[in-house]
Every structure is written in C-alpha cells, then in structure tokens.
Amino acid sequence: MEENLLHCAATLGMAAVPVVELRGAIPFGLAFGLPADLVFLLAVVGNMLPMPFLLFFVRKVFRLLRQRPWWGEKIDRLESRAHLKGRMVRKYRILGLIILVAIPLPGTGAWTGALVATIFRIPIRKALPALLIGVLIAGAIVTAVSCGVISLWV
C-alpha cells in the first residue's frame, strides 16, 4: 500500500516536470503496475498543477531575469523558440493552443503551451481551459498507446 502511494506521488510529480510532463509520467506509472485510469488522472493533475503559476508569473520572472546579461540571452532564445512553436497558435488562437498541447511530441505540451499563451498574451481565463483540454487529449493518446489500445506500428 505504501509503495503504491509512493508510485502515485512519483507519477504525479513527474507529470509536473517540464519536458517529461505526462508523456513520460504515464508510461512511468503504468510500469509500476498502477491502474491506467489512476495513472491518467495523476498525470493530468500533475501536468496542470504548475500551469496557473506559469501563466501568472512567467512574464514577471522573464522581466527580472532580463536584467542579468547571461539570463537575458537565454530568455530571448526561449521566447524566439516559443514564437516558432506558436505559429499555429498565432493563426488559430485557442484551437491552435489546444492542438499544440495535445500533440504528444517533443517540444509540445502544457509547459510550451503556457509559454506560448503568455507570449501571445492569451488571457488566463481562456488559456487555462485550452491547456486543460490539450492535456486531456494528450493524456488519452499517451495512455491508449502505452496500454496497447492504439498501435503506432500499423
């Protein structure tokens, strides 16, 4: 029982980490033998936990970091990458944001979506539901693939 709780906490925490997000947390949780529905729920919740904070504070943090020469260059590079990833968001706004987050590929996901939403000044009350919908779609795809419901090698 205690071991399962530890596996649940690890799955939730892994989903909150950038780059890994739920795309890595779902196979991780399933590898521990946790039920797929529980893993899906933990991964979605974990992936969404940092999103309100990112949407509220990313601009302020970037503004502070830009005052330091070394960080300023890094922030500029990060924002230019977000602009490249955000072409679809620029064109389709909310639908584009959902698609960006929902596609379970490297360089997409909730962290990238939150950064793009901030850069394109999408209001939080619109960005947060769009991120959630995208995370739910990505979670369903990754869970289905990880459980063998969908085969990538057709």
Could you characterize the architecture of this molecule?
It is a single chain. By secondary structure, this protein is an all-alpha fold. It has helices spanning 2-15, 21-31, 36-48, 51-65, 69-85, 87-92, 94-102, 110-119, 124-146. Helix 5 packs across helix 8 (110-119).
Radius of gyration: 16 Å
Number of helices: 9
Q: Structural class of the helix and strand makeup?
A: mainly alpha
N-to-C SSE series? HHHHHHHHH
Major sheet: size, sense and barrel closure? none
Report the end-to-end length measured between terminal Cα atoms. Answer: 38 Å
Strand content: under 5%
Shape assignment: globular
Write out key terms for the chains shown.
9 helices
In short:
By secondary structure, this protein is mainly α. The chain has helices at 2-15, 21-31, 36-48, 51-65, 69-85, 87-92, 94-102, 110-119, 124-146.
Layout of strands and helices, then pairs:
Layout lengths: L1 H14 L5 H11 L4 H13 L2 H15 L3 H17 L1 H6 L1 H9 L7 H10 L4 H23 L8
